[in-house]
Amino acid sequence: MIQPRLIACAAAVLAVSTGVWLRRKRRLSADRLVVAITGCDSGIGYSTALHCHCRGFTVVAAVLDLNSSGAQDLLRIAQISGRLEVVMVDVRHSQDISRLVDRVSSLLDNNNNLKFHSIINNAGVMVFGEMEWQTEQIVDLQLEVNLLGAITVARLFAPLLRKYKGRVINMTSHCGSLPLPGLSVYAASKAGLQAWSDALRVEWAKYDISVISLIPGAFFQQTNILSNQNAHAENMLKAMSEEAKKFYGSYYQLYQSYLTALSGDKPAAPVQSVALYRLLDSALLDPRPRPQYHNTPWRYSLYHNLACVAPTVLRDALVTRFVAMPQYKPDK
Predict the structure, then answer these.
(1) Nearest CA-CA partner of 176 in 216, 137, 117, 226
(2) pLDDT tens for residues 36-60?
(3) Strand pairing partners for 63?
(4) Smallest Cα–Cα separation from 294: which of 280, 315, 308, 306?
(5) I need a labelling partner for 206 at 20 to 30 A (CA). Which of 160, 233, 261, 279 fits?
(6) 303-320: b (≥16 Cβ within 10 Å) or e
(7) Are 103 and 116 in contact (CB under 8 A)?
(8) CB 30 within 8 Å of CB 285
(9) Is the whole model's pTM more than 0.85, yes or no?
(10) Which helix (H) or strand (E) is 179 found in, with range?
(11) Which residues on adjacent β-strands are paired with residue 58?
């Protein structure tokens, strides 16, 4: 005789499976939904703006520089499309964010058929360098853009999010859960972003606002997130004390030389990743979105899982091997 507990367990599994299937199959329609996206000059933000526009959303794309290649591409599309607008926004400045909110509000006021759906906090800054090298300005830049900017965006969009029962999608990072050497400040900003997202999700659930974390994956070669690395390296060297220059010696230049190829502006181009766009569709269009979506390559997943269960000594060795940066050796 089948035990009642087994029947209950089977029913629960079936219900969960059915719920997942329905969530995937019965997606929302993007038609008449408005999304606002920060950091659309290049990379993931630029790609997200193009993808959302192609999916049928009305898109308000926030860019840092209207003369950037990504902004110019989006402006050309905006000239022939009634579903794309471009706004210059530095997320470090609340008045810029307020201008973004006003532009979205104006769209909604002028078209009663539109509904505000989501703000995507994508704007981000990454600077490679050991903690002592990073100047106060470089530290502030990463914390202000990656964490404080996202918080300010959500806070100023709160009235619209409450009114339309919208979504906040925060672009987080694997570095938030597995911090890497050379990215300690960046990792701190992303760990803070993840912690804030988790708390805000519970805080805003009672207002029917969904807060979602999305880890897009690493696309250094396809984005401009490290475009200013060489300039930051020069500033770090200028600010370094004579004692530090003598101590680090040739190690500093060797370290930075590994990153030279990743620096410099690249023309804006869509990120080539089917997995990323599937995640975006799920986060935006699943009727009951999950708290977190992540694009994790097998290599990173392997290192991450091993590091999470390994003793500290082994964990640190795995992280060092994963980053594969030059190792410090005193000059003779």
Answers:
(1) 216
(2) 999 999 999 999 999 999 999 999 9
(3) 88
(4) 280
(5) 279
(6) bbeebeeeeeeebeebbe
(7) no
(8) yes
(9) yes
(10) none
(11) 34
